[in-house]
Amino acid sequence: MEKRKIAIVTGGANGIGEAIVTAFVEKGYTVILIDKDEKKGREVCKGWKENGYQAEFKWCDVGNYEAVQKLFKEIEMEYERIDILVNNAGISKFKDFWEMSEQDWNEVISTNLSSVFYLTKQAALLMKEQGGGIINIASTRASMAEPHTEAYSASKGGIVALTHSLAMTLSDHYIRVNSISPGWIATENYGDLREVDHFQHPSKRVGRPEDIARACVFLSQEENDFINGENIVIDGGMTRKMIYEH
């Protein structure tokens, strides 16, 4: 009997992360959900286990390298290997540029960007012998922005750059690394969105978490291994739209 493949999803308790967990669980993966929201994370995993699926919650501050190292020692002892890592954890913390402190900056950078390096390094050590896939969740804010989003935009731009660098470094071990840049993804109250919210998108709707989750599953499939070092923008066409004031 073929062993279940194992996927790790960070920030998997809510929003896009929860949708990614759902997608991999439904594909037959054993999913390790990592989050700081212990209550919700355990609820999500309990729900899947009650329906016969395999999901386990583990708490971790992914912006702390020592905590990540400790976590992966546990994972190695319990599972011995992993196949897919989705670096989704992040915080959307926008603060006025003139009031932003060093602490504010470091919190966003460590949680959103440094965590990708930390998790990838530890995951790659478990993937080195058999290969695997790493998917990093960036953002269209890597290439476009609103005022006072400096830390968040920098973290997401860093993820895109880190992705192609890691793809080159890890290629000798058949570990492929890609990123996804979501645009506007409504994680709650989708029905409350206005018509103008939807119709400003060339695809005529605001995105859903499942749009990103399906792309993660696609990139994880071995038959798609010719996609490597790439950043896939999923934003309903918004970053391709020229906007003029009339």
Automatic annotation (TrEMBL):
The keyword Oxidoreductase belongs to this UniProt entry's keyword annotation: yes
GO BP: bile acid metabolic process
Keywords: Oxidoreductase
MF-aspect GO terms: oxidoreductase activity
Keyword set includes DNA-binding: no
Family assignment from sequence similarity: Belongs to the short-chain dehydrogenases/reductases (SDR) family.
UniProt name for this protein: NAD(P)-dependent dehydrogenase, short-chain alcohol dehydrogenase family
